[in-house]
Amino acid sequence: MTDAVRAGVDRHPERAAFVYLHEDGPLMRPEEISYAELDRRARAVAVRLRHGSLGDPARPVLLLYPPTLDFVTAFLGCFYAGRTAIPAPLPDEPGERLARVSGILRDAGVGAVLTLPEFRQPIGAWLTAAGVRDVACLSTGAADLAETDPGLWHPPAVRDDDVAFLQYSSGSTSEPKGVMVTHANLAANEEAIRTALRTPEGVVAGSWLPLYHDMGLIGMTLQPLWVGGTSVQMSPVAFIKQPHRWLRMIHDYRVEGTASPNFGYDLCLRRVTEEQSAGLDLSSLRVALNGAEPVRAGTLRAFAERFAGHGLRPEALVPSYGLAENTLLVSGSDPDEPPLELTVDAHALERDELRPARSDRAARTLVGCGRPKDTEVLVVDPVSLRVLPDGRVGEIWLRGPSVAAGYWNRPELTAETFRAATADGRAGFFRTGDLGALLDGELFVTGRIKEMLIQHGRNLYPQDIEQLVQESSEAFRRGGGAVFTVADAADRAHVVVVQELRDGVALDADLPRLAATVQALLSRQFQLAAASVVLVRPGVIRKTTSGKTQRTLMRRLFLDGALPVLHRRLQRPVADLLPDLGTAPEQAATAVPSAH
């Protein structure tokens, strides 16, 4: 990656490497950095790291920045210094984010922290409070880098199998796992992305995704550098406040490639007004990746239809599948073909088979995530470890040059997860924990093993139930649900539906009726005769940085009695599991105004 950046300096030193759009009232104010200036700053960061670090230089460097150009220069500065970088969210608020970063600090054995001058003192106090004494906290503000001579930099000796950075999972905060992405992994996956998506030299990419998440970092930040292009960025908060800003960015900068989880496209459909989209030209967009959570066929169709009059080609919407353990991309659809939809028999899918839908039975529509690129993909029975034929659903296993080296300081978990072997002796595969099927070379991703609901021998996908519930009433917030099971004292599994109400829904709405309607719907559509329903305000459902619903965390919060409930309708065995419900299985909590 360092070679790619320096090649850009040689070829086009004044070309913009990055443009960051700062919120400036209702407007967005651009800040730009050229290839020459990016290289100068990265060399200065590397020199500062070399002279300011304490102890072992092999220890990783934790990056704590807001999502601005300062993060990018610090991240590349670690590469220039031959140090392992750890991108992480700035712990600027108590709660889960602070807990997550504290977990990373402990797990990684961090040797230095890079941040901005305004955060150096509170981060230093946090390190002291955490009992950390041998970690240098260095700032990389404009004044710091101005005082550092980049001419003192010399290229580090870096091997292919050296760890370039640790990508920490965005799920559990209690036991974070750092994926070891080597320089060889990164180069292989950047090249896989380039060939799969036909990324042109000098591409302009634009994104609002977090820079410490794999899709935002590798796909939207480093891929443009890989081909001598320009990356245009804004913060996730700026996008959430005003989703039309993302589309306006594409218009203003003639963005050719972008990416988002499904919920980002859905948010634009719900909140971008006709007035905001007036005059919008999206014809420059070649690739709009949709990944990191189940891709909804309905969302793809609606987004393509909504913005077709603004020059958006339906072929530009590219469903994809990827994960940090494969650096990023595993597969992506052909950017010159419309997304592939497959309508299958719902009952057969519950028994792990893809069969054509029947007119007299329920159906599910799956979206193809393309053909795997530089990665070998098998679909394997997770119990027998037998490789499954086309059209059968099983665990997705991966092998190839993009598969990471393992989990940092976790040799047993690495051996179990990254060194798996099939029943017929094929070895060296990574077990994703994701469920899917191959059909004529196309990969269809159906869910997660640990989130599967097993009811009376049927495998139900929580996202299907969540979607059905959210489409059943205008009172329910799209993307604001979590479905999981809890086990009672007799180890029987019970389905729980936690669903957010939409902003503006009156607090005196008939919540008991809504909850009862959901129960009746699930009984009718999924034969779930005894689901428990919990209605909550907007913003309660926890998500990862990539927009995935954290169902395991939601289960824990539910069982701890930690959800701010508006109304709940619970089955007796489920009510008995909770700490504070007393004797009534159906209770309405005090109504809480929306936090939004």
Automatic annotation (TrEMBL):
Keyword 4Fe-4S among UniProt keywords: no
KW Iron (keyword) present: no
Residue ranges occupied by any AMP-binding enzyme C-terminal domain in the UniProt entry: 451-566
Residue ranges annotated for the AMP-dependent synthetase/ligase domain, each copy included: 8-408
Domain of life according to the entry: Bacteria
Gene Ontology MF term list: ligase activity
Keywords in alphabetical order: Fatty acid metabolism, Ligase, Lipid metabolism
CDD domains xref list: FAAL
Record-stated family: Belongs to the ATP-dependent AMP-binding enzyme family.
Name of the protein: Fatty acyl-AMP ligase
Organism: Streptomyces broussonetiae
